[in-house]
Amino acid sequence: xxxxxxxxxxxxxxxxxxxxxxxxxxxxxxxxxxxxxxxxxxxxxxxxxxxxxxxxxxxxxxxxxxxxxxxxxxxxxxxxxxxxxxxxxxxxxxxxxxxxxxxxxxxxxxxxxxxxxxxxxxxxxxxxxxxxxxxxxxxxxxxxxxxxxxxxxxxxxxxxxxxxxxxxxxxxxxxxxxxxxxxxxxxxxxxxxxxxxxxxxxxxxxxxxxxxxxxxxxxxxxxxxxxxxxxxxxxxxxxxxxxxxxxxxxxxxxxxxxxxxxxxxxxxxxxxxxxxxxxxxxxxxxxxxxxxxxxxxxxxxxxxxxxxxxxxxxxxxxxxxxxxxxxxxxxxxxxxxxxxxxxxxxxxxxx
Length: 351
Fold this sequence. Notes:
Family: Belongs to the CENP-O/MCM21 family.
Strand content: 15-25%
Pfam families: CENP-O (PF09496)
Keywords: Centromere, Chromosome, Nucleus
Largest sheet: 6 strands, mixed
Protein name: Centromere protein O
Structural class: alpha+beta
Number of strands: 13
Radius of gyration: 36 Å
Order of helices and strands: HHEHHEEEEEHHEEEEEEHHE
Subcellular location: Chromosome, Centromere; Nucleus
Oligomer: single chain
Number of domains: 2
Helix content: 40-55%
């Protein structure tokens, strides 16, 4: 073996030994570093979990406080306000009006009747008026008229009290009150006090209608209140009968925006309803999207190459929700979804 070959073999051995020493020194350190990093990451994950749990707890608390605040603001006037109005206008039966008799002349007559009243007369006559028919009160007591779910009564000083009775599915719900009065320098009526929920467009209705027609204002406000109660109770009824299928539910205070996430079989269904008309109990816009939980849960007949499963709009259900109340529209969602599954149009084939 020549000297050159010996030298090359020696150099290779030296390089191999040096590499072994480097690996022996660095590998444990590297593994230790990796272990520390893994532990740090695990600690960060635990920290993130704690933070997320804390956030969820805070959100739950905020939701509770939000519900309490909404209830407080919605019914801020309380029963005391209602009782005071009832003590002023009396609790006698009201004249029944038909649609032909319902006009601004009735309001003018009630104003005149109110101007002739005095607080002392009203207080003295209150006990008797509870037992009398309005037709027997002569010219001394307050009188009331009723048309539909509205009771309109005269009050002292030419004020007008309107009680709005709301209902859904034949069941009575809240009664709301609104008092109209004239300013000293004007004969025009304005809303002086009320128990209307703060999130409903009372001022917009007043501005648009009261200056031109008092009866138009009363009818419009009645429609707004009735539509609000109907939308709210539709959601409550759906919760009652389909609570197991509702995974998420969001609604605005006035229920003019409702969003639902539903589960049916292996499918999720997102429903978004918008009520642009505050006097309507039916949505003006509706979007219904359906998508499966997973691709593996879906039948594939005949077999095909599948790239993905797309979210599919349930157009028939969307149309039905614009024509039907929400609990009945839900059945249309299920029917449209079943038809979509049967037709298998949710697959996207590889090109």
